[in-house]
Amino acid sequence: MQKEPGTCSIVKENPVIPGCTVSGEILSGVQCFSLARGTDISAESYPVAVLQYNLAGQAVLRDIDTNHEASIASGEIILKPANHNIGVKATDDIIYLEIPLGKEFVMNQVIKAGEVFKLKELVPYQDGKIVNMDIASNDHMKFVVMSFDEGTGLSEHAAPGEAIVFALDGNGIIGYEGKEYPIKAGEQFHFAKGGLHSVKADGQFKMALLLVLG
Q1: Banded pLDDT at 214 (limits 50, 70, 90)
Q2: Alpha-carbon span 126 to 3, nearest angstrom
């Protein structure tokens, strides 16, 4: 992950290497995986639940404890339960994030373990309003999805942790430390802890926010 705040592309910064699997930390505890087509991560379990957020490509996840399979594509997210042996096979070049939820976390009830969701479809647009849904949170992390109707936005504020905005639909403008940065679906924006920022919709706009506290 780039060190300086600003518009970025996790996909471009974590390219797939043919025949290989690559992983690395992009925020504290948050791992990015790049898997070439035909490669896999063999079944493994974690002591905590994990969100897998697919940024590019398509894969099949198999829970060998339940014999359940799920196909996950770009823009989709799935909750992998704790202590389940789950493997990932890349049916295309794939790039995804793993977001560990810790032993104690709050999960929105619309998210069911093993079901695939498209993030941008979790919240609707509403005339003149900002719609917010907390996906998951714990003492160290918060993951949120938001929709902004045209003309709406968040006034300048600071967050108590490092964060990444994921643009999901439409176009927005990120204000950061006195400068404005256009952002469109498929791009990300990296905030430093305590950085003054604002968000406004350029038309209608949807985004997800991953905030890591510390």
Answers
A1: low
A2: 35
